[in-house]
Amino acid sequence: MKFIFEDQKGVDLVNFYEVCYRASSKDFIYSNGCGGLKRELTKLSNTEIICIFMDLIPDNPETIYVYNVLRKLRKEYTKMLVFPISCREYYYVKYLNTLHNMIVREDWVFTCLSKDGNYQKSDIIVTQQDKDFCKNFEKFCKLVAMKAPIDCAKNQSKYGRTFLYNDCLCDSNQNFCTINSLYQKSKEFVNQFECFPSIEQTNDSKELSWNEMVIMHRNLVDKYNDTREVFKSSNVKNLSKRAYYFY
User: Fold this and answer.
1) What's the rounded mean pLDDT across residues 211-237?
2) Which of 38, 61, 103, 230 is the most buried (most CB within 10 A)?
3) Is the whole model's pTM more than 0.90, yes or no?
4) DSSP secondary structure letter of residue 179
5) Of the listed ranges 62-66, 169-173, 213-217, the one predicted with least confidence
6) By C-alpha distance, which of 77, 75, 59, 57 is closest to 6?
């Protein structure tokens, strides 16, 4: 089984995701953007199961275009499935929200996790730079990941991203949040995703059969379409097209 991710290898949330996979993460394939997914797919044999994890954003039409390009290849790659997700930052924010004292602005997080079609009205968007950056929902999630957490967990280089690279052994009465190893944090982050490659040395997740994988694919497509309808009712600009199942 092969796993292709649309991300760029070596970025911070990818590194954090890979921690709990240890050596097995060497088999992960990264396309450095959704535009590279077809390229990486066609390097592989069409006789093996191929799982593609890609962002499918309701107000970024490029993502549904790439999804449909891959969908057209399903007759050649009969064991290939795409699992559409929001973006890694969405699941990172979702994970931090399960922890104690990790969020400084819960309203920003709620707008993100509820996939509010009116996210552009959030007061997290302050400067012209914020407005230029936040051109779709994925970018909004990235902005929330940069601004909403406490400093050690902010996904910004100027704060050091301490949470993403170190064990949490803080024991301060003023700012106690969690005591956890980096491995455990990574595992808990990965478990926020609806589906993911099997984690070694763990029994708390279920390995899916092919038929169950197809059901998961359909469930995630349905989720995307539901969010798209929310965005449509909010008159979001650049609305993406509906997605259809592979099988």
Assistant:
1) 97
2) 103
3) yes
4) -
5) 169-173
6) 57
Residue carrying the six token digits 């006789």: 47
Residue 30, CA distances (Å) to 52, 100, 178 in order: 10, 32, 31
Two structure tokens written together for 198: 């099997």
* Beta-bridge mates of residue 168: 180
**Distance separating alpha carbons of residues 145 and 108, to the nearest angstrom:** 10
The gap from C-alpha 17 to its chain's centroid, in whole angstroms, comes to 10
Query: What is residue 122's three-state secondary structure?
Result: coil
Predicted confidence at residue 175, as pLDDT, reads 56
**For position 203, what pLDDT does the model report?**
59
Mean pLDDT score of the chain, rounded to an integer?
A: 93
**Residues linked to residue 2 through DSSP beta bridges, in sequence order:** 50
| Residue 3 burial (CB count, 10 A) | 19
